[in-house]
Amino acid sequence: MEKQKNAVGRRKEAVTRVFISKGEGKITVNDKDYKHYFPLVYLQNQVEAPLKTADAVGKFDIVINAQGGGLKGQAEAAKLGIARALLEVNAEFRPVLKAAGQLKRDPRSVERKKFGHKKARRSYQFSKR
């Protein structure tokens, strides 16, 4: 594999483009090291999860472009993107990643606000008199 592969990950409002190539395990998000971009440890773990599952830590350099949403959404979108990119590189990772549930797009997103309500489901307080 001499050429980089790419994939897209989405979660909530966040979209990440993931570029993967052979290397020594550097992960960059929006031109920053991922440990600086995602300061919380559990978000860093989200990004590393597919690599650990596929036992590919330190084998690939990953460049991620993240847009939209918040940090958590971007981290989880990156997780899906990395999992999909690993499949592009080597299809043998599929059963392991699938068993770990890392190829699923999380469909949950914010419910829209309805008219006549304060929020999506919260109504205004009812007053009888």
From TrEMBL:
Entries under InterPro entries matching the protein: Ribosomal_Su5_D2-typ_SF (IPR020568), Ribosomal_uS9 (IPR000754), Ribosomal_uS9_bac/plastid (IPR023035), Ribosomal_uS9_CS (IPR020574), Ribsml_uS5_D2-typ_fold_subgr (IPR014721)
Species classification: Bacteria, Pseudomonadati, Bacteroidota, Chitinophagia, Chitinophagales
NCBIfam families: PRK00132.1 (NF001099)
Record-linked Gene3D superfamilies: 3.30.230.10
Domain of life of the organism encoding this protein: Bacteria
Residue ranges with Basic and acidic residues bias: 104-113
The entry's keywords: Ribonucleoprotein, Ribosomal protein
Annotated region (Disordered), positions in chain: 104-129
Name of protein: Small ribosomal subunit protein uS9
Stated family: Belongs to the universal ribosomal protein uS9 family.
Bias (Basic residues) ranges: 114-129
Keyword Cell membrane among record annotations: no
One Gene Ontology cellular component: ribosome
